[in-house]
Amino acid sequence: MANYTAADVKKLRELTGAGMMDCKKALDEADGSVDGAVEALRIKGQKGVAKREGRSAENGAVVSLISEDKTSGVLLELKCETDFVAKGDKFQAVANALAAHVAATSPADLATLLASEIEAGKTVQAYVDEANANLGEKIVLDRFAQFTGGYVAAYMHRTMPDLPPQVGVLVELDKGSASDEAAAAVAKDVAQHIAAFAPKYLNRDEVPAETVENERRVAEATSREEGKPEAALPKIVEGRVNGFFKDVVVLEQAFAKDNKKSVQKVLDEAGVTLKRFSRIKVGI
């Protein structure tokens, strides 16, 4: 049995991001040498990427990058297997490097992003695979958003103080500037609202017609089951469908900081329009 301590295991985990059992096995193989174990993990890591493909990556971080003039921004999710790796500097450095690459190249979609070159002779997919090997866990990049053209702001929410942000929101207003305190305030308020209430759509026009029709069918069937008068059904059904819109459409939701106002009302009072938003929660 190799001679090493719990402190050696901890140090090795911090250096490599590998799991505890992998660290112990590597120290056993390296006769307790941390440097030798690091080398062993790197060698095994390169070979173990494919084995990790079947694992679940439900932890990770959301990062954002907003331009100085507030006219563009990026929101990106990078997933891993454990919160231990998620809160590590190496993992977060990878996530931030990927966000910076998106900001610089403006890829049209995920496939374009993964195929683009982030370093000389290295694609983003290869860069993620390298992180997979070096950190000893399955690392997944499968979501990002980029807005340009309006006033762009982000809100990042930590669900635990010792973890990186797990929820991120990117919003774009039709007007505002880097020095516009009013735009900054309303953008932050609306982004925080979106983080908390998780709307699915910006307005009614974005809700798929089949989704609306399904809600209408359910509302009618529920009303009949409840024994509502036949003559009153159209009005009752319409009221329930409107209630559905208030649940899923951000502009119609009651504002988080003042539920007597809708989000639309708050935006109108500020004299701005919410053009679009993106909300990303790690693993969901």
Short description:
With 284 residues, the protein is an alpha+beta fold.
Describe the structure.
The protein is α+β, with helices and mostly antiparallel strands and about 280 residues long. Helix content is about 45%, strand content about 20%. It has helices at about 5-15, 20-30, 35-50, 85, 90-105, 110-115, 125-135, 180-195, 210-225, 235-250, 265-270; strands spanning about 60-65, 70-80, 115-120, 120-125, 140-150, 150-155, 165-175, 255, 260, 275-280. The strands form 4 sheets. A 3-stranded antiparallel sheet has the order 1-2-5. A 3-stranded antiparallel sheet has the order 6-7-10, covered by helices on one side. The longest helix has 17 residues, at about 90-105. The two termini are about 45 Å apart. The mean pLDDT is about 90.
